[in-house]
Amino acid sequence: MKNLLTLGILLLLAGCQENVQPETIEQTEVETVRNDRVIDYNGEIENLELLHQFLKDTEDNKQSLLELTRYTIEGAPIYWRVEYQEGQYNIEVDNREDNFGSQNIENYQCGELNEDVTGSLTDYNFKSCEGGYEINLLSVTSD
Prior knowledge:
single chain, alpha+beta, 8-stranded mixed sheet, 3 helices
């Protein structure tokens, strides 16, 4: 009887412990993605310091990589991968998850990335692109 009472108390105590779920691989991947890429939620920017480091690296003519996720108004992610190498920007834009876009991966090559400031708005635009394109990478509003 004493053993049964002890067992009951142990089970009661075990049931009162905080139920902590182990972190899943998906949670870990989301956390990693959020820390190593610039995120643009319709003008609310996370990890902007990564863009600034990329700009500094390109000014120093260092090979560099920038990853960016821009969300559409509907909430679909568009993934950008920009690699700078030997004075050239190689840009990959993956909009396969955007139901209102072309739903494919597009590639561009550009020779310049300019920082255009108008009042409190800073646009980061690629210029001198193949085919005469000008491509907006990101628009940032300063407070």
